[in-house]
Amino acid sequence: MFGFVINKLKNRKWLNLCLLMGVALFIALFVCHPMFEKGAGNQILDRLFTDHATQQNEFPARMSREGTYAVADYPDSQSVLDKLSGYEKKWTEYVDINKVSSQQLITLPGGRADTEFGGPNNYFTIGYLPGLSEYADVVKSQTGTATFECCISEKTMDHYGLVAGEKIYLHVPDGSGKKEISFVISQICSEKDINNPYWAKTLSDMGDVIFVSQDVFDEMMQYYSEDNISYSDFLMLDYRQINTENASLYDGYMEQFKDADKLYNDNIRDTLERFFTQQKTIKLMLWALELPCLVLLILFIRMISAQILSLEENDILVLRSRGATKLQVFILYLQQSGIIAFAGCVLGIVLGYIMCRAAASTDGFLRFTAKDIGTYRFVWQMLVYAVAAAVIMVLFITVPVWKKSKDAISERSRERISKKKPLWEKCFIDVILLALSAYLLYNYNKQKSTLAISVLENRSIDPVMILDNSLFIFAAALLCVRLTGLIILLVDRLFKKHFSPAMYASFLQLKRTRYNQGFLAVFLIMTVAGGIFDANMARTMNSNMEKRIVYNVGCDAIYNEDFRLRIQKNKDGSVSWMYDEPDFGKYESLKNEGICDGVTRVLEDERVDISAGSGSISDAYLMAINTKEFGETAKLQSDQNDDINDAHWFNYLNELAKEPDGVIISSNLAKALGLKVGDSLNYSRYVPEAVDEDQIYASENVKVCAIVKGFPGYERYTYETDVEGNVTEQEKYLIVANYATVVEKFGMTPYSVWMNLSKGKTVDDIYKNLTSAQQLIDENKNSATVQITNGMFTLSFILSLIVCSVGFLLYWVMTLKQRELQFGIYRAMGMRMREVKAMLLNEQIFLSFLPLLAGAGIGITATAMFVRLISIIYLPQKHNIGVNVYIYQSDMLELAGVLFVAVAVCYVVISRLLKSMKIAQALRLGEDS
Predict the structure, then answer these.
(1) Contact 164/141 with Cβ under 8 angstroms?
(2) Phi, psi (5° rounding) for residue 808?
(3) Which of 30, 79, 253, 820 could bridge to 389 as Cys pair (CB 3.0-4.6 Å)?
């Protein structure tokens, strides 16, 4: 029987090869899921750990324990350190990750101390830090005569006004009272590399600690009558070894550590919790993005398998008439589909791996790059998914055979000529689904604000929101099939008496087969509409993200200068402070070197109080600028349709330049305080937080010279997250003043340097640690969510082009083959070849061209209806620039070009088949059948 099956496959090799292609693509897309999910998950983990390190300024994978031990149980420092090492060993037995570094600090309470030159009543703690000599440099050293030698940090030196060689007289309890012990500061040290993972606690964090050697520390323990010794232990682990496979396991272990030991802590679990939430979102997004493409491939496979089954209908009847049972026929076709599924499984795994890697390498729609995609690797789950997809395909292809296996040929003949109206058309399923899609769209649009907040809070998205557009496209496709049938009947009724024989035969064929041909129309509409929507969705997401980033940055690059704050306590108890301005000339030289076209200072302060009349605003955003330099340097990203403001923003700069004591304010500030151009307001600034968190030191009364909706670098909306993870939206109010006036009234405060790069120059030509729009855009493109979306939309678009072209061509060629006898009879009756071609062209207009046009219209309609809604997933924040829909002409031309080529090739093939068709052979075929 196996040889018989192989011969059957060979007899229709081209159809079976097309079926194999569809099965392989279906399995490949199925196989992509676990690889994409794991790869994106690992990418998210790496990004979360990196962001944590940047935002919290600490090593992102750290376990720690802080507390005290009884001196009676641990009489020396080594016993304490051994106990701490025991904890570290126990942790890493379960959380099997390589150790990066470990910092152990033990301290004695110390006491009041007098310094040789600085005066009395300072307080110091005695500490032993085992890694101090290895990870710190000696800045200054000097020997002296004292009981013990010690080392202090530069921060301690500056804070207490100490110098190398100075003596510290520490008053410590010794059981009988207070005893004075003298220390000489033999060394002043600083971190060799403060970014080294070892420095979980930096020397600045240990500002009141005087460090001694282990021997001195042990000796000091003998002087103390204290019962406890304090310790802190920080274990830094290699976070790169935490991945999607072990994250849940390690999180569980760390939860158990915390439950069993209240002194245990880590900064890993919070990161993993955020990861688990984002991982759920990634899973939902992947299925929601894959499902429409899987449905499209199922339609393609169904179309081809139906054609094969239709051609083999007589073979099935012959087998049944010669005594084969339904089960035997079913097993025969089960073997046939099993062979195709097995071959598709092998090809699908390889193709799925390639497709996933290709999708992961995208940084935009249809933009493949050579970036590092090392997190996307082969995973064993791909084999499971491949087998599951192969089983689905075997059942999908084979089950219809059971229905075809009727007992009598007469029954088959009656079924062949039946013209039953499809169930969906009887029950108006298309209208119901269209209404359901519209209802869902209406509800989601009403909940936009809530949905945006849920995305910002990292809660799982509703996949139905993404799938609603596919539901709309499918329902609209069914409705178009219904309308096409009605159009055919209407045209036939109106012009039936005026038809030529060829046109009459054409419409007769359309009316008889309109229910059967509806499948092709649905396939074409969904393919074209889905391709258009995918392209427009990806373009809209990427373009809006880029424009918002460019707007937020406000220029090509920003460098945040380091200002040194000097604080001095006066005799009367007051505090004086002053910032030392760095050399700005080095930035001005960039213009002379041709690296920058513009450079300017921008002073920013987000702790400004504004009052006008009886109203007031707190925490407003102040920008102090030099209008001429700022105009040469900054950029204002405009909206797609028109400028954000009523006039070009240069006009507002000109108004500010005319008024030294003038300000530009945002429109929301003007509305909140009832201000208009020409009105006055008062704004106040606070002293640096290092001096006092809530003290106003100066105010200024100014005149409003312009009101703007948007300004370079000004984001109107901000979002704050509370300790429970709830996000609240807040408005930011802008006030822009002249730089010279602000410095004169408030003194020098930190500013950032804005740069406008010359053509062809990049941030690599200037300094490290710059904030640039292009860097932020690149980072955004490489985020897992954006990468998945671009990758899946790109794959869907390419698959749509392939499947549509092959399916369209194959369907019409096979239809022509099936109607070979009919065309032979028409030719024998005297119908000319050009009339046969005209008949086929008319059929293609109604069965192909109208669905293709309908697909384009539905795709554009779906874009207008759903793109802004789905964009909430990627752009949940409100912004000065609204979400604009982008339709790239190049994408539409690519899709139209491929479809035009497919239609042209199809027509050429049909013409050649018609020319090669012999009347006698066709009639003989009819006699044989």
Answers:
(1) yes
(2) -65, -50
(3) 30
Side chain identity at residue 637, one-letter code: Q
Residues 6+ apart with CB under 8 A from 455: 461, 872, 873, 876
Dmax over Cα atoms in the chain, in whole Å? 130
pLDDT score for 820: 73
Rounded Cα distance, 228 and 471, in Å: 69
Euclidean distance between CA atoms 881 and 636, whole angstroms: 11
Cα–Cα distance, 750 to 531 (Å, whole number): 51
Interatomic CA distance for residues 634 and 600, integer angstroms: 9
Dist CA 150 CA 133 (whole Å): 12
Hey, how many other C-beta atoms are within 10 angstroms of the C-beta on 123?
Answer: 12
H or E stretch including 610? strand 596-612
Strands 99-115, 167-173: pairing kind = antiparallel
Render the burial of 261-300: b for 16+ CB within 10 Å, e for the rest: eeebbbbbeebbebbeebbebbbbbbebbbebbbebbebb
Element (H, E) at 44: helix 13-56
> DSSP states of 240-304 as a string?
GG--TTTHHHHHHHHHHHHHH-TTEEESSHHHHHHHHHHHHHHHHHHHHHHHHHHHHHHHHHHHH
CA distance 37 to 30: 12
63: part of which helix (H) or strand (E)?
strand 62-70
Q: Which of 340, 334, 343 is nearest to 304 (CA)?
A: 340
Residue whose pair of structure tokens reads 């200054």 in the numeric block: 140
The pLDDT assigned to 808 comes to: 76
| Three-state secondary-structure class, residue 33 | helix
587: amino acid identity, one letter: Y
In 289-397, where do the E strands start and end? 362-364, 367-368
- Distance CA(921)–CA(926), nearest Å, equals 9
* Mean pLDDT, the chain cut into blocks of 10 residues (929 residues total): 70 80 89 88 88 86 90 86 92 91 88 71 84 86 75 82 83 67 87 88 86 88 77 92 91 92 91 87 83 84 80 74 75 84 90 88 79 83 90 85 58 49 84 94 90 81 86 92 88 84 83 75 86 88 88 88 78 77 84 86 92 89 92 82 79 92 92 91 88 83 92 89 80 93 90 88 70 81 80 83 78 74 76 80 83 91 91 86 87 83 78 66 51
Measured CA angle at 827 (ends 823, 831), to 5 deg: 110
Distance CA 41, CA 34 (A): 10
Residue pointed to by tokens 């999708």: 359
List Cβ neighbours of 22 (8 Å cut-off, separation of 6 or more).
Answer: 297, 300, 301, 304, 803
215, with CB counted inside 10 A (0-12, 13-18, 19+), is: exposed
Element (H, E) at 429: helix 429-446
Q: Determine which helix (DSSP H) or strand (DSSP E) holds 649, and give its type and residue range.
A: helix 649-658
**Best CA proximity match to 605, nearest among 717, 753, 749:** 749
Give the closest residue to 708 by CA, choosing from 667, 671, 647, 656: 667
Of 558, 603, 896, 905, which Cα lies nearest the Cα of 755?
A: 558
**Amino acid letter at 564?**
R
d(CA 177, CA 541): 73
Distance from C-alpha of 249 to C-alpha of 904, rounded to nearest angstrom: 58
Rounded Cα distance between 326 and 400, Å, is 12
SS3 label, residue 439 = helix
Neighbouring-strand partners of residue 535: none
Chain position carrying tokens 């079926």: 19
| DSSP-assigned letter for residue 102 | E
How distant is the alpha carbon of residue 903 from its chain centre? Answer: 38
- Residue 275 and residue 41 in contact, taking contact as beta carbons nearer than 8 Å: yes
Q: 742 CB contacts (<8 Å, ≥6 apart)? A: 603, 622, 624, 700
Provide the pLDDT for residue 590: 83
